[in-house]
Design a protein that fits this description.
136 residues; mainly alpha; 5 helices; elongated
Amino acid sequence: MNTLAPPPAAPSRWIKPAAVFGLVFGVMTIFSGGNVLFGPPEAQELAGNFIQFVVWFNFLAGIVYVVASVGLWLDKKWAGPFAAFIAIATAIVALGFAIMVLRGEAYEMRTVGALAFRFTFWAVVAFLTQRATRQT
């Protein structure tokens, strides 16, 4: 038995709040995207000029947010790379969205903000998780 092994590293203080936020945000994303995709016509009217593939991505990403958040909460090693995957996927969808807008597709300005927020949140989580992993 090796008694000189270092104790396991304590998770960073920000991980649990980020996990809770990601979980709540994921559930809200599933609900709002699902409402636009599968809800009454009034829900689509309230959504305004939405781009179908962005709504589908957001709906499915909400499920992934929940999984990533559980991984963060449980301090799983895959949670950081998973957060990076979410950020990269969001950036790709944002690029597709930008192309559609440049081609003249009608859109809502709140979609720009939502994509930017989603990308930023998961990129920061990925960065901080990677940084915390290197320090242990």
